[in-house]
Amino acid sequence: MEEKVKEIMSLIFNVDIEDITEDSSPDNLENWDSLRHMNFVNALEEEFDIELTDEQVTEMMNFKLVLAVLKEISPSSA
Amino acid sequence: MNRIESYQVGDTAHIEHLITADDIDKFVELTGDDNRLHVDADYAKKTSFKGVVAHGMLGASFISTIIGKHIPGDGALWVSQNLQFLLPIRIGDKLTIAAEVIHVQKRQKLLTLSIKIINQHKQLVQTGESQVKVLDLEESKIKMEQELQKKVVLVTGGATGIGAAVSALLANEGYHVLINYRNNKMGAENLKQEILAQGGSAKIFQADVTHRESVEKMVQATIREFGAVTALVNNATSKIIPQEFDTLEWDDIETHLRVQIQGAFNCITCVIPELIKHQGSVVNVSTIYTSSTPPAKLSGYIMAKAAIEALTKSLAVEYGPQGVRFNTVSPGMTETALIADIPEKVRLLTAAQTPLKRLAQPENIAHAIAFLLSDQAQHITGENLKICGGSVMI
Amino acid sequence: MQELEKILNNVSLDKSASLISAIDKADQLKEGFDVTLKIGVLRNYTIEGIEPYLKYHLYKSGIKAEVHFGNYDMILQEVMDPESHFSKNKPDLIILSLKLESFLPDYETGNWNFHDVRGQLSELLIQVMNNVSGPLVINNFISPFYSMNGIIGDVAENSNQRRIQRLNSFIEDFAAKNSSQVMLANWERIIRKLGEELSIDYRFWYSSKSPFKKDFLNEYAKVVANIGKILAGKVKKCLVLDCDNTLWGGIIGEDGMDGIKLDNHEFPGKVYYDFQKSILLLAERGILITLCSKNNEEDVMDVLENHPHSLIKRKHLAAWRVNWKNKAENIISLSEDLNLGLDSFVFVDDSEIECDLVKKMVPEVDVLQVPKKIYLLPSLLMTHGQLDTLTETNEDRQRTILYQTDAKRKEASKSFATIDEYLYSLDLHAKIHLVEDQEVARVAQLTQKTNQFNLTTKRYTEQDIQQFGKLTDNAVLSLTVQDRFGSSGLTGVLIAKKENSTGYIDSLLLSCRVLGRKLEYAFVDYCLKYLEGQWSIAKWMAEYMPTKKNAQVANFWSEMGFQIVEQQEKKSIYFLDGSPQQIIDTTFIKINE
User: Fold this and answer.
1) Which end of chain A is more exposed for a tag (fewer CB within 10 A), N or C?
2) Looking at the complex, does the CB of residue A2 fall below 8 Å from at least one CB of chain C?
């Protein structure tokens, strides 16, 4: 799952997959702005066939939190 | 300690001096008193003194020497002096100037000296009484010297988490550390070994801080082992268990109050005499969550922490005049076993919402505590230092 | 072209990540585009999400899009301040995107006065229209998805539903009245097609004022992109149709007249009947109809002329290739015949093999395969988007006839020994004059569509042409051609302006229909001499701006006797001192007689 998320982030935020680290967040990824965040949410929902609540949308503040939220939704896929 | 306290009634000191013609010449030059009795031998022969005599004050001047150099020496402030000139002093006399402490007034830092000047014939030439103040001019220097000699800290709940971090840090800074633990003997023991391996000084002691006798024993053991208690860190805390208020019994709340408040009370009361003696300092560990909106379901815990902050302030006021400082540290969420039950997502969110984008490490808290205990914080008391990465700024 | 195509082919529109990433890459490309279109968006809500979809559709047509979003909710300030970023950007196409909720926060509660709101809206639309530099796309509003007053709500005289429908009528009327500049993006139609679930993102509307889901954004983007394509001259002008299982069900050669399915009542014949209807509607718009079928010509013509339900007749066809050659060859042949670029063609066939072949051999041609769900055939061409024009003119309606007369001309030319003899025999008459009101639409259309004989390829709208007419130092001249076979219609435009004592030729273009008859020389010669008289000038400057399509006119100004003054990468500047000399003999053309 982690690899898939990194792949999506690389496509949406226009960065190489190698540049995505544990600490990746809007603070250090230039293209991770509010508009792209919405694209990111849509892409995650498409990929994992889930629906995120608006709380979960705001909770995904960095890569680690994205994984934490996704784990919350489907604890089995890790 | 004040210098006045090093004097007792009966302390003495004396010096000797041979009076020469040169002394008299120097005195005349200094004072301008060229009365023929002191300078004109022919004139002096015709007087009842039958010869030149030294100025009375020349003899008395050696009282200054005794006071300035011996009793009390540095810090002497000569307040008053009475003098009786009993016999003349002639060239060639060997004078012995003696001072004896006949009264010590500790509060006023005042010494009363009885002065006797006798000549080579054991005749009493002059007598007098001096009042001398004994000032503590270089107090901090003295204090630091004292401090270097003795730094002893008692850390409650010292086996893990923040307690362990502060124990290790203070040991590294030259403190003798008494690591208190309740159940975690292995943790305490391992920590002690680590400290000793680094060349530090530590001892462990099992005590439940809510039991007064245990605390008393612990303090006594500390003094026996290290000779003093100069600092206290009230770090022992109750467990953080989220519980809705309407499910709480009074006992649940009292547990928080007993561990945190009564525990602190026991420790403070037992060590305060030592702290006063050594101008020591106390740091209480609170939490950032009393400074702004607390999390839900922690009413007992938050209550206790708020109380410990109040205790800090009250005691800062009461013991400030005696030179004992009380301060609080308020950590934000810190990476210790205490937060093990908090879900990972909550921890990540807390970190993400902090300006420094991380949780506190126990070392961050330890450094703040060490600073507050140190002399660099000598003018800080009653303060609440937040270590929360900026998550709360008031 | 290769790189861009590759990137865009890897996109699946329902995978946001693939789209965003592809557009990011495409944005960086310098090659593969032959025109740039600047789009400005004035809005009162968050619509940035449309950008990747807009770019996708425009990039697919080789149009580089630069999209600039005006400040949120400062629409009037943006357009009325010449120093604003928006104004300084001078967009070629402006989208005014309004969400009713932002305009009217109380709209759901019903506490609003219809006349006041319509007044405000009208004011806003007029101000924007008058203060922007190009065509404007507006939208109508989405009616509420539920009634505030329950079941009686929708029927009440003053219900929200009704009032919003009236507002929408007002907006549609506004677009119609100002059709030279304003176009409508029909949100109501998109919503009807997709439904609430696929269109509205309540979550992002509440958190970020971004209301639309990707399907809606895609549809909205397609509408705007189609307008952009037309503005950029990328229109489709000609249909190439297969016959068997395309214009009728079955194979004429095998099933015979009685066996093929073509009927105005029964299924599946009705489907093909309706498809033919849609084709004729396109013909009315000026789209040329041609056939390309592997059949005997007599069999096909038999159906067209004699089948009781064939709406399409021989007279509707501009040309056809009914033979056994390969279709790609045939299409190329048609393009040469009709003098149209291959990228103006749309090919429709039921066979996957034929479609593949054409896609590979002539990739500029748009290929549509007859859908497996046959009942979707009638709407196939209606939603294509690039078969639209921005204006409709008489020429459009008569275009097929015009092309047919052209075919006759071609036949005739084969029987003359020299070109000149042929030209003389044509009895050419040219009408050249300052553009008249009823010609404005056609003139504008020509500037938008003409790619080959076009010296500077400047695209103008009706409004622009009208504007030129109003200024004393500007002139727009039209050329209308007729010969012994018939009229070719208005097929040439020259736009010039005067500065001090020099005339500047801004635009010169001729429809490919009338090329090869030296009309261009006569036209320019006449226009310049006429304007010299009007403006008292004796010097001319002109430019040639090379594009991928207009190489044939590279030397035109030299041929007219101009001297080249400067040659830059993007244009060459020419100068003529004095009046044009008649270098080329065009005495066989009668002007204004």
Assistant:
1) C
2) no
